[in-house]
């Protein structure tokens, strides 16, 4: 399996930047109740073997680990966006109704995972910012 090295992912990059509408992460808490369902999401790291990075729980609380975790949230988010981008290809070899069904499934399956990565990244950035202030 080919994976893009973590050092290629920059949490400050355009696609990963916190957007104004995310309200510093409170959008996910207030409007989509992410804390109530986030724990139900699957963690794909076991499928990647030793290249996987578990994201269910914060493994360590040191700065180095949290920066790696941040980069991993970027890689995971990009993975789910790419999966969504390939959705329209289902229309090429399926009846129209199946194409729409597959698009709906892709959105239902991947959008919550994208939201979880963005929410986690916002929270991790806040923790890292606090650590910088305490030094």
Give the gist of this structure.
With 135 residues, this protein is mainly alpha-helical.
Look at the structure and give the mean pLDDT.
87
- Give start-end ranges of low-pLDDT stretches: none
Structural class: mainly alpha
Give me the number of helical elements. Answer: 5
Count of DSSP strands: 0
Helix content: 55-70%
Radius of gyration, rounded? 16 Å
Description:
The chain starts with 25 loop residues before the first helix and ends with a helix. The model has no long low-confidence stretch (mean pLDDT 87). The chain is mainly α and 135 residues long. The protein is built from five helices and no strands. Helix 3 (63-85) packs antiparallel against helix 5. The protein has one domain (10-53, 60-134). Helix content is 56%, strand content 0%. The longest helix is centred in the last third of the chain and has 39 residues, at 96-134. It has helices spanning 26-30, 34-37, 63-85, 90-93, 96-134.
């Amino acid at each position: 399996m080919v994976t893009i090295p973590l050092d290629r992912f920059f949490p400050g990059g355009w696609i990963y930047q916190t957007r104004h509408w995310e309200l510093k992460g409170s959008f996910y808490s207030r409007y989509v109740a992410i804390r109530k369902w986030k724990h139900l999401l699957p963690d794909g790291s076991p499928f990647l073997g030793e290249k996987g990075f578990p994201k269910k729980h914060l493994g360590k609380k040191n700065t180095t680990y949290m920066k790696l975790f941040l980069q991993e949230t970027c890689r995971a988010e990009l993975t789910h966006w790419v999966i969504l981008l390939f959705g329209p290809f289902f229309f090429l070899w399926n009846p129209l109704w199946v194409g729409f069904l597959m698009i709906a499934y892709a959105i239902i399956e991947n959008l919550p995972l994208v939201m979880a990565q963005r929410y986690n990244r916002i929270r991790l950035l806040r923790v890292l910012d606090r650590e910088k202030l305490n030094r």
